[in-house]
């Protein structure tokens, strides 16, 4: 039987939910938005995030996604080396 402390510890070790894994995260043009209509912006007055966050490989583990009743995972968390493409494009270039 699992104790309360063991259950709490297991919850604390889970990977945070991110927009990379959410089935309802969508990209349209230069914006990332929630297909379910949730506000995912960091700034007041916006309902979307800029795609530049995705391009840079930003974590996208937004606080509002952690308790979202509509979150639906598409699979395991995306590894850090699979996120973003701007750094990959600059790889190997001399300054």
In words, what does this structure look like?
The protein has 95 residues and is of the alpha+beta class. The protein has one domain. It is 20% helix and 11% strand. The chain has helices at residues 4-12, 51-55, 86-90; strands at 25-28, 31-34, 49-50. The chain has a three-stranded antiparallel sheet. β1 and β2 form a beta hairpin. The N and C termini lie far apart (59 Å). The model has no long low-confidence stretch (mean pLDDT 81).
Sheet with the most strands: spatial strand order: 1-2-3
How would you describe the oligomerization state of the chains in this entry? single chain
Percent of residues in beta strands: 5-15%
How does the helix and strand content classify structurally? alpha+beta
**Bulk shape:** globular
Radius of gyration: 16 Å
| Arithmetic mean pLDDT | 81
DSSP summary, beta strand count: 3
Spatial separation of the terminal alpha carbons: 59 Å
- Helix count, per DSSP? 3
**SSE pattern, N- to C-terminal:** HEEEHH
> How many structural domains does the protein architecture include?
1
| Weakly predicted, low-confidence segments | none
Report the helical percentage.
10-25%
Major β-sheet annotation: 3 strands, antiparallel
Record keyword descriptors for this entry:
3 strands; alpha+beta; single chain; 11% strand; 20% helix; 95 residues
Which helices and strands occur, and which strands form pairs?
Blueprint: H1 4-12, E1 25-28, E2 31-34, E3 49-50, H2 51-55, H3 86-90
């Amino acid at each position: 039987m699992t104790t309360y402390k063991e259950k709490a510890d297991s919850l604390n070790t889970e990977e945070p939910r991110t927009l990379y894994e959410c089935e309802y995260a969508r990209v349209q043009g230069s914006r990332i938005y929630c297909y379910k209509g949730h506000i995912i912006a960091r700034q007041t007055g916006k309902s979307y995030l800029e795609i530049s966050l995705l391009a840079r490989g930003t974590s996208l583990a937004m606080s509002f996604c952690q308790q979202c009743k509509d979150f639906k995972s598409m699979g395991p968390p995306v590894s850090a080396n699979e996120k973003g493409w701007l750094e990959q494009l600059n790889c190997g270039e001399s300054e």
